[in-house]
Amino acid sequence: MASTDSKVKIPLHLIQARRMRHFYLLLMIFFMIVLILWVGIPILMTVMWSLVDPKNPWSYPNVFPPSFSLAQWKYVFDYTDIRRALRTSYSLAPLSVLLSLVLSLPTSYVLGRKKIPGKKLLMLVVLLPIIIPGMVVALSLSRVFYAFGLSQTFFGLVLAHTLMSIPYMIRVMTTSFQAIPQDVIDAAENLGANTFVKIRDIFLPMIRPGLLAGMIFAFTVSIEEFNLTFIIGTPTLMTIPTILYTFLGYNFIRTNASVVALLMMTPNIIMLFIAERFLKSDYLAASLGKM
Amino acid sequence: MCFQSYALFPHMSVWNNISFGLKMQKISQQEQKKRVSKVMGMLGIEGLEKRKPGELSGGQQQRVALARAIVTEPQVLLFDEPLSNLDAKLRVQVRVEIREMQKRLGITTIYVTHDQDEALAISDRIVVMNRGHIEQLGDPYTIYRNPETSFVAGFIGLANIYEGTIVARDGSRYTVEAPFGKVVIVSDGQKIPEASKTVKFVWRPEDMKIYTQGAPNRVKGKILQAVFMGNITDIFMDVQGNKMRAQIDESRKLITGDVIEFSIPEDAFSILRR
Amino acid sequence: MKEKEISPIDILMLLSGVGFILLFIGFAIFLTLFQSFGLFSITRKSAFTLENWKAVLQAKEPMDSLFFSLKMGLLSSIGTVVVAFPIALFFRKGGTGKGILGSIIKVPLFIPALVAAFLILNLIAYHGLVNTTLMLLNLIHEPLRMLNDKFGWGVVFIQIWKNLPFVLLIVMASLAAIRDDTIDAAKNLGAGYWSVFFRMYVPLAMPGILVSMILMFIRAFGDFPITSVAGPIYPASMAVRMHIMATVFQEWDQAAVLGVIIIVTTFMVIWAYSRLAEFVKREV
C-alpha cells in the first residue's frame, strides 16, 4: 500500500516546540543586546569623557568627542590629590580586611557551629551596620570618634571600614563553618587530632572558599566606602570615593570625574571576574542577605 | 497526571491543590466543592483540607496527588512511577487501591514503572520498553510465560537464557544441544523457521524441579550458593561450567559444594526472538 | 547537623565580632537618640527637651524630606523588582548563555553607588547622550530634565540601574528553588501562561521578592551619595538633609532627630517585612 505523501508529516507539537526554541533564541539575543547597551553605554560614555581632548571640548550636538587624548588622565594624576587618595584607599583596604577577618573568625565559628539562644537576634545585630543607612552611622559615629580623638585619623578610618565589612565577613564565614559536616570533625577526633591539627587540617582548608569570598567582599567594601570616610576622614584623609565626590560637587569637572570614576571602577570589575571564576555564586547570594 | 515526586503545590492547601485543575477549567464553586469532597472521601484523606503538603506524610501526599489527578475526570490518566517514594509495605497497599479505583472509575490509565511486581499486579496489558523501543506487548500472563526477547525474559521475572544448536526436530518438539547438555524443548506455539540451525531459549528458575526417576531434561549441577529465603530456596549452581539458577520451595538444607540434580519440564521453555 | 553546646569561651569568641559591632553601632544609636532629646548635646547645654522634635515634626521642610525619601524608597524597590522579575524568570527558563550574560549583568553590582550615579549622570544630563539622541530622532524638541528634577526620577533610575543585579540574584535564587514538576503539574492541570505566572511563580518566589524589596527600600530611603549628586535641590532626602543640618548648620541635635526618624523607619520596615513574610507563608 503505497503512501501518496512524498514527505513525512511532522507532528504539530514538534513544530510548535521548534517555534518556541526560535522565539527563545531571538529573545535571548535581543536581551543580550539590551544588556550590553544597558551596562556598556554608561561605562563607554565615561571612558570617552575621560579621553576628551581639552583642545576640542565635547558638547552638543556631537555624539562623539571630536578628538581623543590622554591629557585629562595626565592632568588628574599631576594636579590633583589622586595619588594620595589612591595610596590611602589601597592601604586602608588590606588593613581593614585583616582586622575584620581577625574579629569575624571566632564569632563566625561560634555562630556557625554552636547552639546559641537568640541566634536570630544575633544575626540581625551582625547586620546592623549595613541595615542602618550609612550617613546616619557616619554622622553619629563621627561624634563618638571626635570624643576619642579618632576623627581624621588613619586608625579611625580603619575602624570605620572594618565596621562596615564585618557583617559581610561574618555572614559568609558563618555559612562556611555551618557547612562543615560534624562527622568529618568527629572522624578526625576519632583518629587522634588535637585542636591545633583540627584547625590547620580540617577547618582552615574547608572554609577557604568562604574565607576568600569574605576577603574579596571586605576589600571591595573598603575601597567603595563613602559615607563614613567622607564624614570622618575629610579633609585630612582622602580616598578615591571621597575625591570623586569633590569632583562631583562644587567644582564639577566632568572630565576629571570621569578619570576618577574609571579608576574606582576598574579594580572592582577585575575583582568581579576573579570572583566569578573562582567562587561559587552561593557565597554571593549568602552575603547579599538571605534573611 | 500523577507525578513521581507528587509535584504538589507547596504554597497551597490540600483543598486548593486538589481543586486546582477544576479551577483552571472554570468549573463552578459548587461543583468543585462536590467533586473535591467526593474524591477526598474516596481516598480516605478527609480532614486534611487545610494542611499544606509539607505537613503531610509520604502516603498522604501520594493520595493528594492522586486525588488532584482524578478529580478533573480526565479521559486518560498518566502515572509516572507514583509509588517509588513509598516504603515497600505501603507500596503494595496503595497499588491495590489505585487499581481498584481505576476499575471503579473506568478511566483509561497508563502506568509507568520499573517495578515488575507492580506491573504484573495491576495491569490489563503491559508494554515492555527498552531504550525507547517496545520489546513486547501483551497481557501479564503472556509477558511472563512467553517472553519474546531476552530483555523481556530477564526484566520480568528471573531467567536462565541459553542458545543452542538444533539437532533434531519432531513437529513442535526440538532436541537442542545446549552448552550444559541436551534438552528437549516443546515449542510454545512459536514456529522456528526450517532454515534455523540455532535457537535461543529461556526458562524460569522456579520451573526447575528436583530430579526424580524418569523426569525430562536431567541437569546435574554443583551448588555455588544456596540462599534460604523462607518460602523458597534460591540456588545458584554451576552446570558443566555454565551458570544456572533454580528456585525450589522445599526447605531442604543445602550447602555450597553439594551436587544436586534437576529436571526441567519440556514445556517450561520459551523461544526467544533475540 | 548537630550543634554543640555553648561554653564560656564561646561567649568570648562571639564578643570579638558581635561585640565590636554592638559597641560602635550601639554607641551611635544611643548617642543619636539622646541627642535628639537634647542630652549629650555638643552644640548647647545638655538638657532634656522636646524642642528638637517639635522643630522637625512641625516644619514643612523636614516633612517634605521624609515624604521624598519614602517615595524614593518605594519607587526604587518596586521599580527594581518589576524589572528584575521577568528577567529572572527568563533566565530560569533560558538557562543557556548564563556564563557571559551572568557576568555582564553583575557589573553594576561591583560599581560603587557614587560611580554609578556619575555614570548615569553622564547619560541623562541635560546635554547628555539620551537627550541628544532623542532630539536627533525628533522625538522631543527640548531636552528632558531627568537629573536633579523635582520628582526624583533621576535618582530612581540610578537606583534601579545600580541595584538590578542585586535584586536579580536574590530573586533568581528564589526561583531556582521552585521545582520544575510543580510548574509541569500546574500546566498539566490546565493552567495557562498568566495562571502559572500569578499562581505559581509569584507566590513561590515571594520570599525572595520581599527580601529584595526590603533591602532596596532601606538603601534607597537612607541613601546619601546618589541623592546628593542626582537628586533635586528641594526637597532633599533625609540623609542629605541630616548631613546639611549637622555639618552646614551645625544643628546636630535636629540632625539627630532626623537620624532617629531614619532609624525608626528602617526598623519599622524590617518589622513589617517579618510580619508580611509570616502572613505570606500561612496564606495561599
Key terms for this structure?
heterotrimer; A: 291 residues; mainly alpha; flat; disordered C terminus; B: 274 residues; alpha+beta; Rossmann fold; OB fold (Dihydrolipoamide Acetyltransferase, E2P); 5-stranded antiparallel sheet; 14 strands
In short:
The complex is a heterotrimer of chains A (291), B (274) and C (284). By secondary structure, chain A is mostly helical.
Describe the structure.
The complex is a heterotrimer of chains A (291), B (274) and C (284). By secondary structure, chain A is mainly α. Chain A has a single domain, classed as MetI-like fold. Helices cover 75% and strands 0% of the residues of chain A. Chain A has helices spanning 12-50, 71-79, 82-113, 119-131, 134-147, 154-178, 182-190, 195-224, 227-233, 240-248, 254-278, 281-287. In chain A, helix 3 (82-113) packs parallel to helix 6 and helix 6 (154-178) crosses helix 8. Chain A starts with 11 loop residues before the first helix and ends with a helix. Mean pLDDT of chain A is 81; it is low at 286-291. With 274 residues, chain B is of the alpha+beta class. Chain B has two domains: 14-124, P-loop containing nucleotide triphosphate hydrolases (Rossmann fold), CATH 3.40.50; 160-272, OB fold (Dihydrolipoamide Acetyltransferase, E2P), CATH 2.40.50.100. In chain B, 28% of the residues lie in helices and 31% in strands. In chain B, the strands form four sheets. A five-stranded antiparallel beta sheet of chain B has the order 7-6-5-8-14. The longest helix of chain B is centred in the middle third of the chain and has 18 residues, at 88-105. The mean pLDDT of chain B is 89. In chain C, helix 1 (8-36) crosses helix 12. Chain C has helices at residues 8-36, 51-58, 60-94, 98-106, 113-124, 129-136, 153-176, 180-188, 193-221, 225-230, 238-248, 252-282. Chain C has twelve helices and no strands. Helices cover 74% and strands 0% of the residues of chain C. The longest helix of chain C has 35 residues, at 60-94. Chain C has one domain (59-282): MetI-like (MetI-like fold), CATH 1.10.3720.10. Chain C is mostly helical and 284 residues long. The two termini of chain C are 31 Å apart. At the A-C interface, helix 1, helix 3, helix 4, helix 5 and helix 6 of A face helix 1, helix 3, helix 4, helix 5 and helix 6 of C.
